[in-house]
Specification:
The radius of gyration is 31 Å and the shape is elongated. A hairpin with a 2-residue loop joins strand 15 and strand 16. With 875 residues, the protein is α+β, with helices and mostly antiparallel strands.
Amino acid sequence: MNRIFTLIFFLIMALAPLMLTAQNCGTQNLSEAKKSYESGHFNESIAILKDCLGNHSGIRQEEEAFRLMILSNLALDSLDAANHFMGKLLMMSPAYEANIFDPPQFKRLLNSKKAEAASRQVTSVSKKAENIHEAPATVIVLSDLEIRQRAYNNLAEIFYDLPGFDISSTRAGTFSNIYQRGYRSNNTDRMLVLIDGVEENDLWSNIAYINRQYPVSNIKRIEVIYGPASTMYGANAFTGVVNVITKQPADLAGDHKIGIDASVGYGSWNTKYADISIGGKFEKFSFISTFKTYFTEDYDLSGYPEFDFSTEAYDTINYGRLLSVDQNVEEFINSPDFAQVADYYNISYDAAGKPIAANLNQAGNTAARQLDINGLNTKVDNALPSYSNIADNYFFSGKLLFGNFTIGYELWETKTGGLNYFTDWSKLGSDNGQIWNPKQLYVYSLFEKQLSESVHLSNLAYYRKSDANDLSRSVSMANYANSGLNADAFVLQTPVQLTTVFLYQTSSQVRDELKISYRPTTNFDLIGGLEFRGSNLQGDYRMLINPPDSLNVIDDGTSSGDLMPGGNNFNIMNIGAYLQASYHWKELFIFTLGGRYDYNKIRKSGGYGSVFNPRIALVATPGDFIFKAIYASAFQDASNWTKYATNPQRLLANPNLNPERVTNLEVSVGYNLNKNSFIEASFYNSTYDGAVGTVIVPWQNSYTGQNQAIGKLHIMGAQALFNYKRDNYSIQAGYTYTHPEENIKDESGLPTDEYQRIGDIASHQLNIIGNIEFFNHLNINIRGKWAAERETGTGTSVPANPGAFPATTVINTSISYFDIIKGMDLQFSCYNLLDHQYSDPGIRSADGFAYAWRTPQAGRNFLIRLSYRLNNNIW
């Protein structure tokens, strides 16, 4: 199939010059129209220009034709016509600028239509500016004004209100697990997250840490692409792409030299944060810098039995079932240390007098229980085992612009407790050291230049490093109740084992992407790029158990990867080349064809080799309708964490794990009901191959788990979005339908031909957002989300989860008063206004024993925010 697409792709590219043969408006016609306009014969100028518009001549010629048409209509006070042609001009050339000779009325109309068009423009789908209705993908754009009106405080809150996403908010190491279009993975690792085109997903694990470190003061807009996008982005743009586009210095400074956008907030659970962006413009350069800190004690789960560390839980344990012995009994009772526990066992014998069972009696039951209780009275990190959680977040970023260059950086770090993934049967709280501490740093340079009227060049280069810092620790409890200690340990009266494992990983990458856009006429454009990535990625964790103060995990830790040929670090080379063409026919149809070739090599002979991913799209825009038909594919390269990281249940790595593949067929229809409202519905069918699952395999005279590409998923669904905006109020409603299935695995983990429901995903969701503004100052925003039952347990992909997750209704609201004094805003947010008691599902391994089957969500809670804007012109 890929060979056929490749052949079609290069055939159309070869025929592209034929598409460029279009009638030329001609400089003579433009000259005559200009003379007519300047002499006051505006109707005559319009008549001449009608033959120029839509004939797909050179870009500059058609821009000039539209300009004269707008000026002529303005001169005739035909404001509706001028407005119409200004919209057409900006659809063709979104970055169009007025010249110094244009009258003020033209400039005002241009700026007004630009502001209006900004909400309908995307740059992330095809890596070029295009109208959202013409882009070859289903896209949602969120503006900075909407972010401020809704008083969002972090990215996780934004995803909650978007259609097409299921969210499990664990407030643990990854904070939120976000699943796009029904693909339920272990973490947020199938969706590509970008900031200004630079990837945010962790290099080692591919996890996007959508925690609370990201600021909102510097966001200009967020573009959300649904569906596979490997044609432009290569590996891991699997279920979709989210590009957070940050503000430029001019967005903060306006017409001044310096601009500031800052906010501080305080809320429930002693939540405190500060978020500030500063931008400035000088003669030859401009800059913007952003800083955010966020601290909270977070929602306290100690009132729930999974997290209360109560000694009463041990009263229900049948220690006799766990510590009785019916194998090798004679050897067991004749061991030298058995005498000290002999009173705790009743011995059974066969007719020949041979011991056949050693059964723990009631005294033994009491003794074992007491040992477990004593474990809860043992301090770890100078604290008794108890529920505790932290959330410390830091973020720094900045960029410097001069000439055609932008140089920027980003640094963030989060420290979060990890207990919420687990239960008090297996892990301890953050006060005892259970902490996950990821960090990311990158520096980049962007060069952009318009080489000619039809050719634009850009080059993005960066160095990126992602770490799990050596403060990352897993604090485990092995006791008799959780079978961490067995009968042999009981004979020795072994106390509860509280073990701290220090974890560390660091990975780095250099990347360069050269992109060229070629647009010889207004009806045809071609965009191509060449990308290189050189990575040094760690294999398994580097670990150190309970180190003395003189040791540290970086220098003294060990890893299972140390035993692999070549060691625990892997040099990886990726090369990608893409090409995409778009052809407009009679302002009615837009045909897009694209393809990307990726090549991967690990060390000398490893890697997945070659992959090709096409995209074919047809967009039709008859009248007020927009129709789209899209075919696209993508691939997910298995992360080094997936390939090499081991645990007690999965001791065997899989360096040869192949990429997952997906093909997606999608159709959508949109309709402009009137100038104030628009509705769009999309329908998709996705087929996934090679999804990673754990298979039980022979290993060292025993068995263990190994990750293998054995899964198949069929996911079909629909989503709809309705927008209505008039004067000072607006309504947005989003609906999501998802039917996800995956193939059933047998007892050893091997795939069968039968399918089951993917768990933790709601079949139906409804989001409604209402906003109303009074007196240009008071703004009230209400956001409601209803989600149907999330199925778990037998017959789903999460059969171990014993819980139920019924339908939920959650309402969040924000009241804002803008410009209390000039530039100062006060916002009050109430989350879960109805105080609805509900839980999100636990992680994929949730069993209610070692792994928490649920994360109870916060009831009604509050946040108050004070913001200040100096010289900011976003309003």
